[in-house]
Amino acid sequence: MTAVSSLVNEAFRPAFHYASKDTWLNDPNGLIFHDGTYHLYYQNNPFGNVWGNMSWGHATSTDLVTWTEQPVAIACDESEDIFSGSIVWDEYNTSGLGGPLAAPLVAIYTSAFKEDSPHYGHQAQSLAWSTDGGYTWTKYHANPVLERESANFRDPKVFRYSGPRGSYWVMVAVEAHDYTVVLYRSDDLKTWEYLSSFGPANGTGGVWECPDLFPLPLDGNEDNIKWVLTVNLNPGGPNGGSAGQYFVGDFDGVRFSSETTVTEGLQDPARLSEYLWLDWGRDYYAAVSFNNVPDGRRLMIGWMNNWQYSNDIPTSPWRGPMSLVREVSLVSFNAQIRLRQRPVWEANADPGRTVSYTGLDLDAGLHPVEGGTAVQVIEATFVPGSAEEFGLMIRGNGDDGTRIGIRPGEGRLTVDRTTSGNTDFHEDFSSIDSAPLQPTGGSYDLRIFVDHCSVEIFAQDGQVTMTELIFPDPENVGLALYASGGTVKASSLTLTTLD
Ligand code: FRU
């Protein structure tokens, strides 16, 4: 019996998203490109597939699509759990933790102290270092290096700042229950000086976690650099539960100032739609960016899950996939600044087998299309007609499936997973979720990545993204276009099936 059910659940194992072999994972941690390899560390329970025993798991990749699981990198012990954090390459050995010949990688992580520790009840920031390229780690003997005697001070993201005020390490972390990002600076990663705080602002429907801060040129103009502050919150997302938001503004080496704050202080539920969300779906959380990516590219990855039901998703022996890696850039769109996200895919991935259709004029109803599979990329362009809603149904069987729809009158993109397959493992899972969406030049463009247990949607060239888990019967691979209450033209539809 066990063998059969674990076989069935293995059918949800993603083909081109990372998931661990047989354990639990949550947040991406310590993302860095070093010596030709991308390192993805993550919150990991080495002993089970629900949250607990928090340690840093580890995977490596050279193409950001295929990952190799490595041994646990930093393990919990009797005095601490290893919560989220980041890694820097201490090229000039400012920390003194490297040997004479080896600049160290230094991990800055949150120690969630347990009863055995004199810091019991606190969360504080600690160091570990590696001189073998990130495979084995030693904890610093004088941890923690930054202790505020707070129970909710966590998730340090450290980067090297160079600007008019000099060159130093900057840490962004959170006081999670105060909806506040706190900034510190250091010359040696061991002693930290407080700089400033940001928040509460915009989304504050839940604790703030896993912040990040990075510069990007607006519309590719290197003379117009803006700073982006991202912060995840749980719950309080636009469609419920966990989600990430971002602010665009300036960082002067001390303080971040936002140009995109809609509400100061506590969140206004009526204005949730005006806040800037990294992803409008239910399953993109704790997203942070890689350090040291060549050519100034900013690459992010998120945990494809939601704390509302993450411990119950019906996969085994593993639990918790990561999203695709996304390259983010800042673009002006209808006179507003937006973070555009494109999956890192083209240069690396298997070209697959492609089928294309053009000029499909559709009446009201469901129109099956040949070629649906459980692992594919779907690119669709729609020119609206009289239909009040149109779109695609994926992973279908008859009328059941996951509907990805556009409602032009309401200006919304929707994902309906109420009949997507197994939805009753948790009462919060079944949902119809939506995001604001406007056409470009009169048409709607969707790029959809379907991978066994997930659908990741990049709309209008990544201006809006929606990421959702689904658990259909593995046999259900029906694909259809649909229109409700009128007509629509699918001016092109391309299906790429991946082997
Ligand atoms: C976010 C989070 C972090 C914390 C980690 C613990 O999902 O709650 O704030 O460091 O997970 O696993």
Describe this structure in words.
The chain has two domains: 17-343, Glycosyl hydrolase domain, family 43 (Tachylectin-2, Chain A); 353-497, Jelly Rolls, CATH 2.60.120.560. The model is unreliable at 1-8 (pLDDT under 50). Helix content is 2%, strand content 51%. The protein has one helix and 32 strands. It has one helix at 2-10; strands at 24-34, 37-45, 55-61, 68-74, 80-89, 105-113, 123-130, 138-139, 153-163, 166-175, 180-186, 193-198, 207-218, 221-234, 243-251, 256-258, 285-289, 299-303, 326-333, 336-343, 353-362, 365-369, 375-384, 389-397, 400-407, 412-419, 432-436, 444-451, 454-459, 464-469, 478-484, 488-497. It is an all-beta fold. A hairpin with a 2-residue loop joins strand 24 and strand 25 (400-407). The longest helix is centred in the first third of the chain and has 9 residues, at 2-10. Beta-D-fructofuranose binds at residues 26-27, 43, 54, 83-84, 110, 154-155, 209-210, 286.
**Could you say how many structural domains there are in total?**
2
User: Which blocks of ≥5 consecutive residues have pLDDT under 50?
Assistant: 1-8
The rounded Rg comes to 22 Å
Supply the CATH superfamily name of the largest domain: Glycosyl hydrolase domain, family 43
**Beta-strand residue percentage:** over 45%
Major sheet attributes: 6 strands, antiparallel
How many beta-strand segments?
32
CATH topology of the largest domain: Tachylectin-2, Chain A
Mean pLDDT: 95
Structural category? mainly beta
CATH top level of the largest domain is Mainly Beta
Distance between the termini: 29 Å
- Order of adjacent strands in the largest pleated sheet: 21-32-23-28-29-30
Coarse morphology: globular
Number of helices: 1
Give the distinct bound molecules: beta-D-fructofuranose
Tell me the helix content.
under 10%
The CATH architecture of the largest domain comes to 5 Propeller
